[in-house]
Write a structure and sequence with these properties.
This protein has a four-stranded mixed beta sheet with strand order 3-2-1-4, with no helix packed on it. By secondary structure, the protein is of the alpha+beta class. It is built from two helices and four strands; from the N terminus they run H-E-E-E-E-H. The two termini are 27 Å apart.
C-alpha cells in the first residue's frame, strides 16, 4: 500500500487548487485495542490513501460525510483497490483481545 498523505502535501495541493474528494474510516483490531484509520481520496492522487496527520479535517476544506467501516465489511467492496489491501480475517471490534471471531 502507498505510504499515505501527509499534512504538508495536502496543504500544498489545496493551495494549488486540489480538493479532497472522499474520506472514509476503517476500524480494525490492533492487539486488544481498536484502531481507526482515515483514508482520503484526493484530486491530485489516484487511489484512497491513509491519512498521516491527525489535525481537524475542517483544516482541509472537506465538509462531506465520513463513513466508518469495520475491516471486512462487505460494503468496503465498493472501494475495490482499498478493499484488496485490508484484512478480512481475525477478530473485529468489539471482539478485540477476545476469542470471539466474526463468522
Amino acid at each position: 500500500m502507498a505510504s499515505g498523505l501527509q499534512e504538508g502535501e495536502i496543504r500544498q495541493a489545496l493551495l494549488e487548487g486540489g480538493r479532497i474528494r472522499n474520506v472514509l474510516i476503517v476500524s480494525k483490531c490492533v492487539g486488544a485495542a481498536v484502531e481507526h484509520l482515515a483514508y482520503l481520496r484526493a484530486s491530485w492522487r489516484r487511489d484512497f490513501l491513509p491519512l498521516r496527520t491527525w489535525n481537524d479535517r475542517a483544516d482541509f476544506g472537506f465538509r462531506g460525510c465520513i463513513p466508518v467501516y469495520i475491516a471486512g465489511d462487505p460494503e468496503l467492496a465498493r472501494y475495490k483497490a482499498l478493499a484488496r489491501e485490508l484484512p478480512v480475517a481475525g477478530p473485529l471490534p468489539p471482539h478485540c483481545g477476545t476469542a470471539g471471531l466474526r463468522g
